[in-house]
Specification:
The protein is mostly helical. Helix content is 80%, strand content 0%. The relative contact order is 0.15. The mean pLDDT is 87.
Amino acid sequence: MINVIKVIVVLSLIFVAAISDYKFRKIPNRLTVPFALIGLGFNALIDFPNGILTGVFGFFVGFLIFLLPYIMKGMGAGDVKLMAAIGAITDWRSVIYVALFTAVLGGFISLISRARAGQVGLTLKRTGRLILFYFFSFMEKITSLPTMNYRKEKYRLKMTDSKVDYIPYAIAIAGGCVVTIVFSRLGLIQGLSI
C-alpha cells in the first residue's frame, strides 16, 4: 500500500510538471517544493526516524544528479528540483534509475527534435564535444596538468539560442519515472513499484 501511494504521488507530480514544462517552459517551485515536503513527510511518517534519512538522501541524490548539467546550462533549475522532489518521495535507488532512463529518453527526444529540424549532424558533433569536454575536465581535476585545461576549453560548447535548443525535459523525466515503475513491477529492477 505504501508503494502504491508513492507511485500515485510521483505520477501526479510528473504529469503536472510535464504539462507545465511543455506549455510554459517552466516547472514552478510551487509545484516541486510541496511535493518534496510531502515526500519527506510521508517517508518520515511510515518509518520514523529512518524514513527521514530515506527522503533526505533521495532528495540530495536527485538534486546532485542534474546539478552538473544545470551548471553547464544544459537544463533548467526546475528539472533539477523536479528530480530532487522525486528523490524525496521515493529513495536514492529509485531516483538513480529514473535518472538513467530519463537520460536515454531525453537523448531520444533530443534526436527526434533535431531530426525534425534537420540538425542531426550538429547534435552529434555537439554531443562528441560535450563528452570530450567532460573527459578533459575530469582529467584536469585528477592530474592538475595545465594542458588538460587547454584541451578542456578547446571542447567547451558555445550555447546557442535557448529557444531553438529548448526541449521540455520534464517529459523525459516523466518517461523515466514510468519506465522505472514498469521495470520495477516486472521485477527487472529494484525500485519504485506497485
